[in-house]
Amino acid sequence: MNFYKMYNVGKLWIGEHAPELFEGLGVVSIIAGVVGACKATLKVSDVLDEHNSKLRQIKICQETCPEEYTEIDANKDRITLTIQTTVNIVKQYIIPVLLIGSGVTSMLWGHHVLKVRLAKYAAAIVALNSEIDGYRKAADNTFFEERESNRYLDKVEKEENRAPVKEVEISRLYTKRPSESATEAVVHLMSVQNMARALVNAGGFLSLNRVYGMLDSGIHPTDSGLVMGWMPRKGNEPMNKPTLFCGNTPLNDDTFEYWRDRLDSNGSLLIDFNIDKAPVYGRLGETA
Predict the structure, then answer these.
(1) Using CB atoms within 10 A of its CB, is residue 172 exposed (0-12), middle (13-18) or buried (19+)?
(2) For the residues 149-157, what does the mean pLDDT come to?
(3) Which residue from 98, 109, 130, 212 has the fewest beta carbons nearer than 10 Å?
(4) What is the pLDDT, as a whole number, of residue 212?
(5) Does 72 share its domain with 166?
(6) Which of 109, 138, 167 is the last residue of a domain?
């Protein structure tokens, strides 16, 4: 079992680092081939010296014994000697040439693997951007900052500074982190809700942007989120705000399984924040 696991890990590692491995192997092979070629060059001089020595012997034999050692015999010996010398030179250089050739091939193959991988990454990014663009066009505009600002911030600025506190819901798409289970994500949401209630009950203004940051799920702050949120409670007003809603279902102990199942099946939820709709900038000095 351990050997099989090590085999799979090694296979994945080699596949991930294939371009670097091929490039490194190519460099090592080329260096080894060059070193081998230098050594072979030193040996080739001995081979050539032996070749020239045997040619002189053939010439001497031909001059001393022209009747027994004819021109035809001398030519045959010269041809045989040339073939033997060529074979010996090839033997000296064959391994360095193979090393250099395999090194160049390995480097070219590593470059090809990297080029194909980058092309796949680029195609994946293009496809992902296309999907995101299609989703943004098809999704409800209430998910985005411009729509939120037009619908809520402009209305708030037109109200009187002492307008009564009302509730309004702002929707945001919450996506759990990949490392989290659905249960952990819901527990995190409940802890954020409880912490936000404690801040409001302590008598301070809690902005929507601050809750976005507490959720830590990639929901970006907005301009309107700076002045929208929850005011301190006064008198006998309920002390259970803010509350997170999924549809008409608030987040509490009784609805824990409902939220967990929704996150487990979808990986994300459309959460409604029941903010206090009031001219907040005119009420920041009030206390509970």
Answers:
(1) buried
(2) 49
(3) 130
(4) 82
(5) no
(6) 138
Do residue 21 and residue 131 come from a single domain? Answer: yes
Domain that holds residue 193: 141-282
| CA 66 vs CA 58, 59, 63, 70: distances in Å | 11, 10, 6, 5
Domain termination site, one of 97, 116, 138: 138
Please give the model's pTM, rounded to 2 decimal places.
Answer: 0.40
234: left (phi over 0), alpha (psi -120 to 50) or beta: beta
249-288 confidence digits (pLDDT tens): 888 888 888 888 877 676 777 777 777 765 454 444 443 3
